[in-house]
């Protein structure tokens, strides 16, 4: 199994995603305070053998990369995150299609009920690998303090 972590770094919070590259499936996802992102990365690294870490090249990316390097994570790659938050709105509705009358509202004005940071991390991963991933229904986005 080849596992990647994708991180959408932000000033206050980070979206993180753990995915299996071979099966093209999301394994786990979370949203954490920016100063605590490494706790989730460490937890995943204890349970799995991480091959690569992807980081969005926008806000707070240097802090995240430096923190990872301090803890001996060196297989780090930056991904252009321009427009990824907007695209995450559409990707959210692809993964979890709206039901009933909501599905007729244009996706441009329909706001997802969830925080999108973990979905942005998915967009970064998909952009890096130029392929779509599946999000099994059992994977909940953890919002950790």
Helices, strands, pairings?
Layout: E1 3-8, E2 13-20, E3 25-33, H1 37-47, E4 50-56, H2 61-70, E5 76-79, H3 84-95, H4 117-129, E6 141-143
Parallel strand pairs: 1-4, 3-6, 4-5
Antiparallel strand pairs: 1-2, 2-3
Helix pairs in contact: 3-4
Fold and architecture overview:
By secondary structure, the protein is an alpha/beta fold. The protein contains four helices and six strands. It has a single domain, classed as YqgF/RNase H-like domain (Nucleotidyltransferase, domain 5), CATH 3.30.420. The chain has helices at residues 37-47, 61-70, 84-95, 117-129, and strands spanning 3-8, 13-20, 25-33, 50-56, 76-79, 141-143. The protein has a six-stranded mixed β-sheet, sandwiched between helices. Strand 2 and strand 3 form a beta hairpin. Helix 3 (84-95) crosses helix 4. The chain is globular and about 50 Å long. 33% of the residues are buried.
């Amino acid at each position: 199994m080849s596992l990647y972590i994708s991180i959408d770094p932000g000033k206050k919070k980070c979206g993180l995603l753990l995915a299996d590259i071979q099966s093209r499936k999301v394994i786990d996802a979370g949203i954490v305070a920016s100063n605590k992102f490494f706790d989730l990365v460490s937890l995943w690294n204890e349970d799995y053998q991480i091959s690569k870490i992807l980081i969005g090249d926008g806000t707070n990316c240097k802090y995240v990369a430096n923190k990872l390097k301090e803890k001996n994570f060196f297989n780090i790659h930056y991904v252009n995150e321009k427009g990824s938050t907007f695209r995450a709105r559409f990707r959210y509705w692809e993964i979890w299609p709206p039901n009933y009358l909501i599905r007729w509202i244009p996706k441009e004005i329909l706001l997802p009920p969830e925080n999108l940071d973990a979905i942005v991390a998915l967009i970064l991963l998909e952009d890096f690998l130029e392929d779509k991933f599946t999000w099994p229904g059992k994977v909940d986005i953890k919002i950790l303090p």
